[in-house]
Amino acid sequence: MSTTQQGPPPEHERKGRFAQRYGESPLHLVGFALTFAVAGWAALQLADLRNAFTILVWFAGAILLHDLVLYPAYTALDRALQGAPFGINYVRVPAMLSGLLFLVWFPLILERSPGLYRSVTGVEPPDYLARWLLITAALFVGSLVVAALRRARQPRAGRAARAEDGV
Amino acid sequence: MRLFPAKPPPGPFREAFWRSPIRGTWLSSVLSAALLPLVAITSFTGFASHVSYESELGRNETFARDPVTRLLDDTFGWPAADWLFAVNQGLHVICGLLLFPALLAKLWSVIPKLFEWPPVRNAAHALERAGLALLVGGSLFVLATGIINLQYWYPWNFAFVPAHYYGAIVFLAGLAVHVAGKIGVVRKTLREEGVKAPLREAAPAGGTISRRGALAVVGGGSLLLGLQGLGQVVGGPLRNLSLLSPRGEGSAPSTGDAANDFQINKTARRARVTPEMVGPSYRLKVNDQTFSRDDLLAMAQTSATLPIACVEGWTATRRWTGVRLKDLAKLAGIDEPGELYVESLQPSGGFRQVTLNGAQARDDRSLLALKVEGVDLSMDHGYPARLIIPGAPGVHNTKWVAKIEVRA
């Protein structure tokens, strides 16, 4: 919304009767009508499918799971870390990356279907849990090394500053 | 008339509930700018992937298509271009993985809006919020089903392909109207605040991480996930770095038959193809003629280095040797085949048969392969003979071929 030198005119002058009742311009309504028409049409293509209702459950479930489970869980975890006596990001960053890998690959990590994996690929599923734990350990060790390096550099910088000050 | 009290209830409906000072229009805008091209590539390659299956031919159709999809299929053919499908699926899966952390970050940055007060201001606002449900639900649904499908886990009882396909259309419908409404804000924010300047700032007062730090974590997550996808597409030493993806390190059989020890899409056992079926009594039927495997080996042999590329975003490139499909068509008396119907010994399953288009049937590199890297194919790779078609979806490279019908 751009403003002019004189400032915007009062709302009842700027908006027509439609906008006053609807809240936005008619174009807005056309856009959303199209959106729901297309989305509704796509949903109808699925309606004849076997177990179509489950698709709806998964669709709504995805929102609920993210907004009411995943988000509160990682936020609570993050807040619990905030009181820690160390630089929080050295824990938070590797934890987030490890958590992300788990979130994406948990079906393999937790061996949700080793039988199908075996019969499709012809090989035993690799030990994904061990791999994920190793990657997680590497991320935390890497973070620790960065923390140690930074700490080692800081006092020296401090000393140098003091020397320049003639202390 | 007022539907909701003016004062928001306690909890997330109040601004003070949301603590992070790095949330805001700038962060949301940067994430949107990163997401948009990734979504565009993932969507385009998704529809291209559908086109590659040539659903309009024979019994290739994998789900009951609507008229618009049929028009799409009738309009676009799929060329016999070596790397086309491998690159398409690689991009689809890798970009899907890359955008996942950015999507989670974007949802994190805008989640206070879920609890905005009043929940509904007017009709337009109600529509916007319903549209966001399509957008958020659609993006999470498509990504979740796609990512889980990669891992051979089917915790649902519906058909994956149509659900993923039409779910993506629901998502894109929600996205289109969202982008139309918000692109002005994103451009204005990035123009006025700049892209680089806010990145140089330290963590804001009361915050625990800078915006630069937060974006670095998102980017790092994307890189970690992208690497998982990249290794199984590119192969070679990069594959060893794909430690968590289904077709990365350790996903190839080790039988000692080095030429055949590469990724299998479906074992003979799973396809219920037995050694008896491929023994000395094996005959390939081409229109009204039959050939033994020795007959096929006695024909002119052609070699081609081509990838087998799976829709799930993994590739195995090998040197295949066998008889040109074109030459087989000639034996059947058709010099310029228009279509080729191919059937497997595999007794059941949607991909026990395929119909190839004319470009695929006539290509010099389209083979009925008998060998890989100079060695007989193993049972799991389709012995006695399998199709190798440049640029075709992996499952169209039919294994254990029993019958070919050449059509003019």
Could you please describe the fold and organization of this structure?
The complex is a heterodimer of chains A (167) and B (408). By secondary structure, chain A is mostly helical. In chain A, 78% of the residues lie in helices and 0% in strands. Residues 161-167 of chain A have low confidence and may be disordered. With 408 residues, chain B is α+β, with helices and mostly antiparallel strands. Chain B has two domains: 15-241, no CATH class; 258-407, Sulfite Oxidase, Chain A, domain 2. Chain B has eleven helices and ten strands. Chain B has helices at 25-52, 67-75, 84-110, 123-149, 160-193, 197-200, 211-234, 268-271, 293-298, 325-331, 358-362; strands spanning 284-286, 289-291, 302-310, 314-324, 339-344, 353-356, 367-372, 375-376, 386-388, 401-407. In chain B, a hairpin with a 2-residue loop joins strand 7 and strand 8. In chain B, helix 3 (84-110) packs across helix 4. The longest helix of chain B is centred in the middle third of the chain and has 34 residues, at 160-193. The N and C termini of chain B lie far apart (73 Å).
